[in-house]
Design a protein that fits this description.
The structure is a homodimer of 231-residue chains.
Chain A: E1 5-9, H1 14-25, E2 29-36, H2 43-54, E3 59-64, H3 101-116, E4 120-122, H4 138-151, H5 153-156, E5 162-164, H6 172-181, E6 196-198, E7 201-203, H7 209-221
Parallel strand pairs in A: 1-2, 1-4, 2-3, 4-5
Antiparallel strand pairs in A: 6-7
Helix pairs in contact in A: 1-6, 6-7
Chain lengths: 231, 231
């Protein structure tokens, strides 16, 4: 039975695509929202399109919102994306942090939700990210729900918005398992911050933090990793 | 003495332009942020440019962010802008409410603030608006400050963001007086939701809620109103 519309933030990565699959599995009609923030890894926009198609999203909006005008992140700026071969240091806020990104994304999702009468918003933040990114922590999600209650016509009328975070307590291995269970087309998802071109097709670099965590997740989950890595 | 940079949300209207003047008078270097949300009253973008010039803004960013893709408001949609000759009913949420607009605007301002190391954000919300718009109320502003403390690297490190609302307790007459005192070029500001073209130049319609409140403000403040109204 349909639970009605939910706005699902969909970047095209493994996390957000699995999050969208969870929203659909929970009975929501998926309204997929992709923010084109002029990220370096623009290939993820195509992954988002494929995922929205695969889920039979009721609507898919790709909203241009050029956060690169502000700078301050290696994802939108000339700062180097960190690379390495060892373990990812999850205790520091990495240079790939985009200032206030999830606040902006959830705000735009809230605007769309209120305009179409939806009260449910899905975002694929998870336990692994939130050690490094302030806007992936449960305290942030709760603060945003509190804001939504004050910020909107629906909210002040007592009709609360819910921010769903089905991946919150999962690490990458848990997400890989969930993706598998929900039949996500894993090889169509895009994770890498710094794609390497191989002719016309983009490969995952295999060495940025995001690639290393993705690799490690499949290894730890003991699942095949269909991703094409350059290294 | 400069207090450093402040992000100032500047639409080009009387309120936000007066708010920017207050930020400058308080000693901040103005970083003006205008959101081009594909509003019907696009003439206000030119007013914002003039205002940013007039204040010697350190930088002025006009960020395209097309909220009209979501609909739900007479400012971005095909819903009629309400018109009338009597008093504006300030007790209801009007159809000119844009879902979660100030949440989106403040989020983008927060992103820019964090990227450039600013901790101060100015927004020209006021007492007159907040009876009708949920996101112009003090409770909303406080909820946003609480969110900013959780949402950002600076915030979680204990370096708080301040949302300044110098117009919060003013009605339109109070804003007109403040604008006058701060030498704002009032006739360069744009308020009308539904401009009327007179050859190449745009006139304020004089009949939408925003125009009626602007008119009434100058009358009550006993100040000359240099605005060119069509009616």
């Amino acid at each position: 039975m349909s639970k009605g519309k939910a706005i699902v933030l969909l970047s095209g990565g493994l996390d957000s695509t699995t999050c969208a699959a969870a929203a659909k599995a929970a009975g929501f009609a998926v309204m997929a929202l992709t923010i084109d923030y002029n990220q370096r890894h623009r290939v993820e926009l195509n992954a988002a399109r494929r995922a929205a198609d695969a889920f039979g999203a009721e609507r898919h909006v790709i909203l241009p919102l050029d956060l690169s005008m502000f700078g301050g992140s290696s994802l939108t700026d000339d700062i180097d994306v960190p690379k390495g071969d060892g373990a990812v240091d999850e205790s520091i806020i990495p240079p790939t942090y985009v200032p206030a990104r999830n606040t902006v994304f959830l705000s735009v999702a809230l605007a769309w939700a209120e305009a179409v009468g939806a009260r449910d918003i899905f975002i694929g933040v998870n336990a692994l990210d939130y050690s490094g990114y302030p806007d992936c922590r449960p305290d942030f999600i709760r603060a945003f729900e509190a804001l939504a209650a004050q910020a909107t016509k629906a909210g002040v009328e007592g009709d609360a918005f819910r921010i769903h975070t089905p991946l919150l307590d999962l690490d990458k291995a848990g997400i890989a398992k969930l993706a598998h269970r929900l039949d996500v087309d894993i090889k169509a998802t895009w994770t890498c911050y710094d794609p390497v071109m191989d002719g016309d097709s983009a490969l995952h670099c295999g060495r940025c933090d995001a690639c290393r965590l993705r690799k490690k997740g499949f290894v730890e989950a003991d699942l095949p990793d269909p991703t094409r890595y350059a290294a």
